[in-house]
Amino acid sequence: MTINLFQDPISSYRESDTDDDLDNEIVELERKLAAAKAKRCKHPRSRLEGDSSSSSSSPEQPLLAPNLPNHFHLLLSDSALPLGSFAFSSGLESYLAHGHKSNPYHPHTSFAAFLPLSISSYASTTLPFVLSAHRDLSLSNLVELDDAQDASIICTVGRRASVAQGRALLGIWERSFSQSLPPLGSSVVTAAQRGDLKAFGLLVKRGSSKEIPDASAHLAPLFGAICSVVGLSLQQTAYIFLFGHVKALVSAAVRAGMFGPYQAQKILAGETVQELITEMIKREWRTKVERAGQNVPVMDLWFGRHEVLYSRIFNS
């Protein structure tokens, strides 16, 4: 038997194979090849080392370019951000003290009861200022918002906490964040936006020695302005701001002995917190700063009574 090495490969197929059969087989092989490539791209080792056989434009390729908003999203939502919130309980310590069993007016105290009140109060008094500063980053608007919030906070303890955390955030911006931004012209950050924040910082420093300062540097307007500069969306800004309050509140509850760290993470990851934050953002989305104010009056009482407690571990 003689074997022809130069035989046409097509002629090696059975005579019974039609063109349709061959086309179907080709389609099936191409489908299997595409599935195998997709598996390879999803493999952990492939994602780390890269796949030289795949095209660089493949949708499975990871996004390796620097992403400024995502980076600052993580920074601003980090519990290690030195705002000083660790020292504040946002009225929780006073709530526990005034809800002692010996007090007939508050026989029951629980974190589950306090959390919705605290989030609602915090959102109604601060979130409109965050959103307004994000929408308009001009120096004049920032000064106006800061002055309006200073006037809207009735409780001295709450005002002091807002200013302390706001000045801490301003210091973080000036010493760290502003120096880490890309050069002008290489991002959406403009010289005017950076200049307005710098000018606001100078106003705060210049007025610190005055009886009536030019600017107090409240947390809410500054948070909205900084988030706008680094490219975070309005919704991201609002969610990070409220979630930061919840994290500080849960941390205070752990240190007050209400529950342990595992229960704290369960609360933070739970649907209740997510739904509360989302509901508050929807409620305050179009609220004007002129209508911002305390909607849980007893919260101001808990804040104000904190300083007269016999013993305390928090500043508020």
UniProtKB/TrEMBL annotation:
InterPro entries: UreF (IPR002639), UreF_sf (IPR038277). It comes from Podospora pseudoanserina. Residues 1-23, 36-63 are annotated as: Disordered. The lineage of its organism: Eukaryota, Fungi, Dikarya, Ascomycota, Pezizomycotina. Belongs to the UreF family. It comes from the Eukaryota. Keywords: Chaperone, Nickel insertion. The keyword Iron does not apply. This is Urease accessory protein UreF-like.
